[in-house]
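Q: I have 721 residues here and want to know how they pack in 3D. Can you give me a structure?
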Amino acid sequence: MVNLAISFTVTALVLLLTQDILIDFPPLRRAENALIDLRFQRRGSIGNVHDSSEVVIVEISQESFKSLPDPWPWPRQYYTRLIRNLKRAGAKAIGIDLVFSSPDLRTPTDDEDFRRALHETGNVVLAGKLESERHPFMKRERGENYGNVFIDATQNIGLVNARVDGDGVLRRYMPFAYDPAQERRLPTFSLGVLNVYFKQASMYTAEILDDYFHYFSRDIPRYDNISFLVNYYGPSGTFKRIKFADVLDDEDFKTAEEITTGESTNTFDDPDYGYLYDGTFKDKVVLIGSTMPEDKDLFSVPIGEGKQEGDNQMYGVEIHANVIQNILNKNFIVRQPFWITALAVFGLSLFTFVFTAGLKEIKTRFSLAIEALGVAILFSELFIIYWASLKLFTDRNYLTDMTSPVFAVLVCYVGSTIYNYVTERKQKALIKTMFSRYVNPSVVDELVAHPEKLRLGGERKELTVFFSDIESFTTMSEKLPPEQLVAVLNEYLTAMTAIIFASNGTLDKYEGDAIVAFWGAPIAQPDHALRACKAALVMQSTLREMRNRWMKEGKPYLNVRVGLNTGEVIVGNMGGTDRFDYTVIGDSVNLGSRLESANKQYKTNIMMSERTYRQVEKQVLARELDLLVVAGKTEPIRVYELLGMLDDEIPAERRRFIQEYNNALALYRQRQWQEAARHFESALQFSPHDYPAQMYIERSQLYLASPPPPDWNGVFVMRTK
């Protein structure tokens, strides 16, 4: 009876924690998701869909950017020609995985031609989105075009809202979404394309049955109430991709290469090899989408190439291709029913508890052998669970629940051990001793887990260091009463420190009004340079807001300079045996301090080294300031001023200023002093008070009158710290 009671209890506990019956236990949910991914990786690619699939992808890629004469965003006429050519080539259904959120302002007539083409072809599905700040599938009140200006009441549509799991991996796909504003269900993008393929109504959606979604004579096994698992055929690149430009390249269209060379290629309609005649698109589903990482239509999926960590990224258009091919092939993953999971958990719980508890009751001098046998049984059970789950998934597309039985086996093994100790004379003492090792303060737990953190010295790591200082703080402190000075300084340091912590930075120390911080330790951060840059920009923005408020309160004006440098440092606990701090030392740290001071020479706010800039140049807006030899150094370094983030809204005047400034600096380095001065003056028209531009005008005029020696390399030597 005890064995049955414990087995029932373990079964109920395991199912409660792993099956989301009453509560959601994220660690076990993440474990189960990881085990799903493991099965995809072990199974690998299935079939030869690259050559046999009914789905072909027309990709918007870098190659097409180079081949097409017009810059991005492309004219609408490109898409018009594309869908007409695909229709000519026999495409049965065409899905455009792009949301045309605004009209073509350059050539409005192209929009009308595109609309005509949509209605003429009749087999094109447009992408739309349901958007809300509170719920990803709740539509805002902005008409019925779902974010796409070409969607109307007669157009075939599909929603491209993606539903990822808590770990950011896209495993599930919803066949439809509900629009409460219009009180109707809408097909998701893949199902919308299939509506055209199967000649169904544009708003046709799957029916919900007990364990399935029923869609056009197909029963799609449900994973949960609103979605099914995508049975990925392979990693990114599995489905055939055709370049966007190659489908446009008919006899009436000139690519950039054709314009340059004067020779026609006509990859689309050449009689010998053109897509119009070779059957590539004949009776196929054609999906048009981006394979450019910068378009951010990229998702983590359960399967990758397996060559390195993080290679499980897949473009949205490829995910739709997998879903469509699943439905066309009826190639679905069936989830193990709950009752089978419950039965398996109970059986394993009973067997594990009875067998291991019985082993522990055997009194023999070979107690170690008995313990080893118990461990061997435990690992054998775990291996059988793993092997059976992988075999069923690989051969039958049958997904068993691995977390529940594994958790049940482990809990029962541990439970049997504890039960055995409870029944013996020394059980209480043993339990007390065992638990006393774990009931410790969190700091002690960390030191026990990582005792190396107590050692003096440190480790060599690449980090990004941050130095900030208040301009003319000494002068200001002499003018203000100590109480007011301390209040302002405390408010400033509190706000800046909160920004550092919000970006997962490490506060090193305060040195009066100065702040020293770094990113990349103790927890590794591959994007430590970017985090430091963002924090510096947020600090300056926050400081501007504080200054506006302080001005009304009669408080002093604070201007803060920041220096950023990335490089190798020594980081760790340093000091004496009784007192030490977690800090950084090294030349890279000293250089960060020098860059903060160097702001004074250029009247800038945020200066960073070239090494920092190279790590963030694709995300930040910055300009080169100078080739600088800082105090105490002999080798020049290139320094930059951090101005903002590239994904921020940047005024056109700001962009023009930076362009003119960069052109002028290039001329300056080429010793073209007069032209350089003229371009710097042109830059000042967009930013009249920019000191670096004014400084370079003065230098250019000086060199124009007295040129530097022939070996001059443009370096400026900073004499002061």
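Q: Anything worth noting?
A: Residues 133-142, 425-456 have pLDDT under 50 and may be disordered. The CA atoms of residues 302 and 315 lie 13 Å apart.
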